[in-house]
Each structure stands twice: as structure tokens, then as C-alpha cells.
């Protein structure tokens, strides 16, 4: 036996028997026609229905696009190709009352650079920077500034010199995308220091101003008035912008101008200001302040610092502002084309941006005595002819220690003796008005809690003036209520909330916490001098269109009344005239020195004010003058902060201003017309009285 199986033969392999597989055809799966009822194929019907619905939607959409929405789609397609950019309107002019242009426009050359060209030729940024004395970073910052329209070239330099422009024209290949275009900017034909604070300046619109004027067509590149008339009358001065439709290709390049609507220049604002009077007032105010800083106050032995001051000339018959000056001042031309940071810092540091005529708050001192006198005569507290013995020292009867104290001293040592109402105003008797303050405080049941404050409010003190200038302050007249308000707003600065008889005495002659603006005092005296009608001060006289059509005149606006019978006003007026004309008057010697007009034909009166400040400080110097009498046309107010005695510092400013008015009376307002347009040539004037 072969155990390994080697050599064993296998049985022959038998063939496998397979059963035959049946094939399957489509006929086996689908019934034959004779086996089922005939019917359409459901799936084919569904498919056909789907395509029918789809076709229906397509037809509806085509109908909508081609018929219903055709116009809007066409406009949208056009918008993707055409860009509308605004064309800034030239600002309107500002003139004085004789149609002399104070603020106009000048055409200057501006170097601009295309953003697209700058991106394609980066080297041009450095080249144009060197040409315009800037750094490449500065030029790039201008290109990146979002306030400029992306489809307009960016302004690189305004007021380009003729030499720079000539170089560009001779070497255009070096400056791809750089061109020169005309632009307008503010100009000051009478000098940028004439009426500075009244006129104001223009700058780029701020984000706040842009938000406040949403929907009015302003852009981030728009010019906007920042102060003065430029700010208050921004809307009419702005004019109506035009527009330019430019075609832009797919690469963002400007292909051409499709259409253009020219802008309409702004309206001309005609002011009540008289240029010659304005320049005179500014000059004498500045000269007096500078001289005051070099003079020794004979009373204190100190040199007044006189850090600032203001003066106003108002027509008491209408409230028209004929001149307004504030010192320190600045040159408006510095803001044209953008002010340098160094110049701006200097202006801000000096306080020159402040218009102290409307925003300065000063203790009024004896100029307030006219208000107290009015209240006393209205209430019957004292008769105008009653005499009071001014001994120089007023002791409050039955005084309870506290408040402002029990003993009040005259500014004039020794007093002025027996005086009535007129004499007390002429000599500025403090004692007389101490007594009035005491009598009112001692009889509140009979005369009310604040009779003087009520009359002051009627005269406009502590009230919004309504002047067409922004940034003004509202003064305050000291009272128990006012002290509570002051303490609530600034507890450390105003710790005292009580009200004693002594406080009422101080208030009666313009001291204590009373503080008013020069404008408020001008309104008060104008109200008294015209017989009791309080007018809102008005800087602008009217608007004239760029075509010479008178659009609007601003008539006098009555804001209040003061009851002034002859029995009340006559003795007060007599006392105010005596201030200048009587040898006992506090400004008599000053006007003898500085006034050179004929007082027989040009009669003036006034009131001095020497208002105490904090201990160690020089007093505020005030003077209010008016004339010519008996029907005054001018009220002149001057105040010099810490300037010293009223007759020494402020009164000379008023006297010298009257020298000008005596020979240069203010004429009626002249509105420019198409046949007689505004001019840069000022009228001929006469020398002041000498």
C-alpha cells in the first residue's frame, strides 16, 4: 500500500449537468395589451406638467421684467454706469449796511490727484508731495480720506502758486493723474480783522453738523459756518448745490460727463454793521486795553491785567447792531484753506475765539443802578426829589450778622453828601443805592420778594437776547432763587445758599453774584432810552439773492416792555446826562479829555461802572454812553475785564467812538441790486472830531 498516495490513479472527472436558464424580456414585465385596460403613462403626464408649470413661471417672469419693472430695471442699470456727484455752490457774500463787501469769494487754483492714477502709478504720490512741500504720508492720507468723493480727484493743495502750476504744465509726464482745477474760497476785502467775531469763519463740516443736517445734501467734504454770521446764516449763505452725472466704466474710470446742473450761489447777507464805525470801535478798544495794561490804577496802585474786553454800538430805536468788537481778536484769513495747528493753538490759548460781547459775563457794578432806580420809582419806594445824606458809610439798621455784613462803604471816601435820584446817578452814590436795597429787603410784604430782579428781567438782564449769533451767554441777577441754582450746579464755587438783607443791598448796586453780558446791558439801556420797548438785537438787515433780488428784510422784533412814565424816566435820564455833562459826574473829566465833538449840538450821557471782583483782583471797568440827545440814535457799551475804574478804562473807548459818530453819522441800510451790486470799495469817511 502506498501510504503517501504516490502513483494512485484518479477516477475520470464526470461532466456537470446544468439546467437551462430562462431569459427575461420586457414583455415578461409589462402586461400585454390584451391582459390589461389601455391608459396613459402617469409618469409622463407628471413630467409634462412640471415642465408646463416651469414654462409658465418663465413667461410670467419675462413679462414682469420686460413690462412691469422695465423702467425701474432700466434706471438701476443706468445707475450702475452713471455716478452723480455734487457741485458745491459758491457761498453768498456778506456786506455791511452800505453794501460794502466784508466777506466774498476768490477763485484759486487747486492741485488735485486721481486716486485711480495714483494706484496705478504709486511713484506719483512722492512726486506730488515734493512739489507741494508735503510728505508722501500726508498726500496718501488725503487720498484715503473718505470725505472726498471717490469719483472726483482728491484736493492735494489749494491756492497753488503760479510757479507750481507752470511746472506741472511743463512736465505733465512726471505727474500722471495730477491736474489743476479752479475752486472758490473766502476772501476779506476789508481785511480779515474787520468784524472778526461778528462775521465768523468757515471750515469743513463736522460729524455732528453732518448728522444734524441729514438729508439736506451735505457731504463730508462740505464747507460749513463755524461761528458768527457764517454759522447763523449757514443755510442762505450755502446756496443750492448743482450736480454732475459722470459715466464710470467697469474699471471705475471716469469715461465722461453725461449731464450737469450748475449750482446756484448763496444769498448775500446784508448786515446792520457800519464798516467805518466797526473799524473805529475795534481800534479804540484794542488801543485802550493795551494802554490799560501799561498804566497804574491810582486807587489800587496796581497795573490792571485787562485780559479781555468788548464793546457794542446799538441803535436803541430798533435793536440794530451797528458795531461789535471783542478783544483779543484774530485774523479770519488764517482759516482760509485750513488753519495750521500752531496758529489754532495760539488763537485758542489767547481766548480770541470768544466773542466777549455776547458771551462774556461780568459783574456790572454801578451800571446796574439804572435798573434799581427804575424799580424804586415804579414801586413808589422813594420819590425822585427826596434827598438822602450820603455819608460814605451805610450801616444796616437792626443788622443781624451774616450774609454780606452790616456796614457798606462808598467807593468815594467821605460820601457825596445830600443827593436825590438824579444826583445819586450822576455822582454814582453807592450809599443812596445801598439804602434802596435795604428798603426793598425790609418791606417784602409791601413790595414783593424780588422787585429789582423783576425789573431787571423786563430790561432783558438774565434773559435770552434773541440775537442772530450763536454762542452767547445768558446772565444772572443775584437772588435767593438764583443762589440755589448756582449751588446745585457748582456747590464748591457757590457754597452760599442763604439770602440776607446785605445780599439784597449788594445786588441793588450791581454786586454779589450778578453777572451780565455787554449785550444785555446794551439792551437794557436801549430799552430805557426808547421809552420802554425792548427789541431783540439784530446783526443782519436782510437777504439779497445772487441775482440782486431782495428776498427778506428783518424788521425790529419786540421782546418785552418796561413801564416808563415821564415821572420815572425823566429824573433817571437827568442823572445819566449829568454823568458826562455835570462837574459832579463820574465821567465828566474823562469826556473833557477824550471827547472832541461839540456837546451843544451832539449831547451825550452815560453811566460809569466799577465792579468789584474777587479779593486782590482789579475791578471790571464799565461805561455805557448814549446820544445824541434828546432822541438817542446810539447806545455804546464798553467793558474791560479787570480794567480798573470805569471812567479811566472803559469811558475813553466810548468817548472816542462818539468822536467818529459825530462826523460820520450812520446812514440807512443799502441793499445791493442787479444794477447797483455790492462793491469792495468802502464809502469815503470823514476824520473823527478833533
Automatic annotation (TrEMBL):
It comes from freshwater metagenome. Residues 1-20 are annotated as: Disordered. GO terms for molecular function: penicillin binding; peptidoglycan L,D-transpeptidase activity; serine-type D-Ala-D-Ala carboxypeptidase activity. InterPro entries: Beta-lactam/transpept, Beta-lactam/transpept-like, PBP_dimer, PBP_dimer_sf, PCN-bd_Tpept, Penicillin-binding_protein_2. This is Unannotated protein. GO terms for biological process: cell wall organization; peptidoglycan biosynthetic process; proteolysis; regulation of cell shape. It is found in: Cell membrane; Membrane. Keywords: Cell inner membrane, Cell membrane, Cell shape, Cell wall biogenesis/degradation, Hydrolase, Membrane, Peptidoglycan synthesis, Protease, Transmembrane, Transmembrane helix. Residues 87-256 form the Penicillin-binding protein dimerisation domain.
